């Protein structure tokens, strides 16, 4: 079997399913477990730190671990960096069969920090049985020194190991998400997968096609120049995670502009920010105002559209990316980390009387697509619970590239389209 620690809502699991393999995921969060169940993934709801390794010994071919990143992430207090010597001590002790977790946990500033040592408890027991055949682990970049410690231990046990930082955008993920990766194998040379995408598209050479341009948010979300450029919104996003309502003043301003005849339909350049899939989903569910018949918003005096960007949080240093670019790293967890579609005048601007669209919160489905989950992935829980799962997940498209060599699969850039 393939064992997946801290399995979350199924980023690694979905990737394995695309490769024709199933895993068993260990996960504590109730809503992540519900999402996994709805997606048909095998899950044990448990505390990874308490679950015994014995059921997996003699049966494990692959081992995956993505410990919780909250203690290390730049989005939090980063107490994991303060606790790092304690975590490294726990890893060193567990690699020799000594369990000092209880004593070390009492000294940690953030009790979640020590979860990054849990994979070694499993690996030590599995290694005694000559398992697993391969290992894949992922975390935020600040955990790379810890992964290097793991690598030194795994090499002593006979593994080939690679560690480093990879950018998910280089593998077709519409997000410049950088992560510390560890890949290890008993049977092949461990190395990172060859990137399939680059910031600037590369020309074809005698050696074959160059890398494609990074996938933009607009491409991933299916926004096209014939659709409306304003994110469509539903009335009253409820606990199931629906879109937020457009503020009434903004809705009135847009309605007034339409009534005054100031809308104008004209071709949009390919770089214009385009519509989300909310309109199609909303029309299917019948709970949105139907503006699909309206032409795109533009004003006759200026003949310009609004453009839209995604702002990753409400903080002063938030990353803001145009929709024709990949998103910045998506992270959620508290109100300051809400992602917003933010309008800006296209070049040339608008007149003073032009109504200004309000910023619109990203939907869970859109955030999931930007993580390369399917648009209809069955996220469970309220909006906060869904966003938390999405922000913590491994992008399946990145995971496919990391796992394919270990399970004997060869990929080409056209083999799959996870964001479709």
Structure description:
By secondary structure, this protein is of the alpha/beta class. It folds into two domains: 2-202 and 393-407, Rossmann fold, CATH 3.40.50.150; 216-370, no CATH class. The protein contains twelve helices and 13 strands. The longest helix has 16 residues, at 79-94.
How would you sum up this structure in a few lines?
By secondary structure, this protein is of the alpha/beta class. The protein has 12 helices and 13 strands. The protein has helices at residues 11-18, 30-38, 79-94, 101-107, 118-127, 144-156, 217-221, 248-259, 278-285, 364-370, 383-392, 396-403, and strands at 2-5, 24-27, 42-45, 62-65, 134-139, 160-167, 178-185, 197-198, 212-213, 306-311, 320-322, 340-345, 360-361.
CATH homologous superfamily heading of the largest domain: Vaccinia Virus protein VP39
Q: How much of the polypeptide forms β-strand, as a percent range?
A: 5-15%
Please compute the radius of gyration using only Cα atoms: 23 Å
| Number of discrete domains | 2
Task: Give the CATH class of the largest domain.
Answer: Alpha Beta
Q: Find the CATH topology of the largest domain.
A: Rossmann fold
Q: How is the quaternary structure best described?
A: single chain
Order of helices and strands: EHEHEEHHHEHEEEEHHHEEEEHHH
Distance between the termini: 29 Å
CATH architecture of the largest domain: 3-Layer(aba) Sandwich
Number of strands: 13
Largest beta-sheet details: 7 strands, mixed
């Amino acid at each position: 079997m393939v064992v997946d620690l801290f399995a979350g809502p199924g980023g690694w699991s979905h990737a394995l399913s695309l490769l024709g393999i199933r895993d068993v995921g260990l996960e504590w969060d109730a809503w992540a477990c519900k999402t996994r169940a709805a997606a048909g993934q095998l899950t044990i709801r448990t505390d990874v730190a308490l679950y015994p390794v014995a059921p997996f010994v003699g049966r494990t071919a692959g081992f995956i671990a993505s410990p919780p990143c909250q203690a290390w992430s730049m989005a939090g207090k980063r107490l994991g960096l303060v606790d790092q010597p304690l975590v490294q001590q726990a890893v060193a002790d567990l690699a020799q069969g000594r369990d000092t977790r209880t004593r070390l946990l009492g000294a940690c500033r953030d009790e979640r920090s020590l979860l990054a040592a849990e994979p070694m408890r499993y690996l030590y027991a599995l290694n005694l049985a000559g398992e697993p055949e391969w290992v894949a682990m992922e975390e935020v970049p600040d955990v790379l020194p810890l992964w290097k410690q793991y690598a030194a231990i795994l090499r002593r046990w006979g593994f080939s190991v690679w560690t480093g930082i990879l950018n998910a955008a280089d593998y077709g993920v519409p997000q410049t998400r950088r992560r510390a990766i560890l890949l290890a194998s008993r049977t092949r040379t461990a190395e990172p997968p060859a990137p399939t995408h680059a910031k600037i598209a590369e020309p074809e050479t005698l050696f074959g096609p160059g890398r494609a341009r990074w996938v933009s948010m607009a491409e991933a979300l299916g926004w096209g120049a014939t659709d409306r450029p304003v994110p469509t919104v539903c009335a009253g996003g409820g606990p199931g995670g629906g879109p937020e309502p457009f503020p009434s003043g903004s809705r009135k301003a847009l309605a007034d502009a339409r009534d005054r005849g100031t809308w104008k339909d004209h071709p949009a350049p390919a770089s214009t920010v385009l519509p989300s899939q909310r309109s199609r989903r909303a029309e299917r569910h019948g709970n949105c105002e139907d503006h699909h018949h309206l032409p795109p918003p533009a004003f006759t005096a200026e003949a310009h559209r609004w453009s839209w960007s995604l702002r990753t949080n409400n903080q002063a240093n938030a990353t803001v990316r145009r929709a024709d670019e990949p998103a910045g790293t998506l992270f959620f967890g508290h109100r300051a980390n809400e992602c917003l579609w933010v309008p800006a005048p296209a070049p040339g601007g608008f007149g003073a009387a032009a109504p200004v669209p309000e910023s619109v919160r990203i939907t869970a489905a859109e955030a999931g697509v930007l993580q390369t989950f399917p648009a209809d992935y069955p996220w469970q829980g309220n909006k906060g619970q869904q966003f938390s799962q999405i922000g913590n997940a491994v992008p399946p498209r990145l995971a496919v590239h990391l796992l394919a060599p270990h399970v004997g699969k060869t990929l080409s850039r056209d083999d799959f389209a996870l964001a479709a």
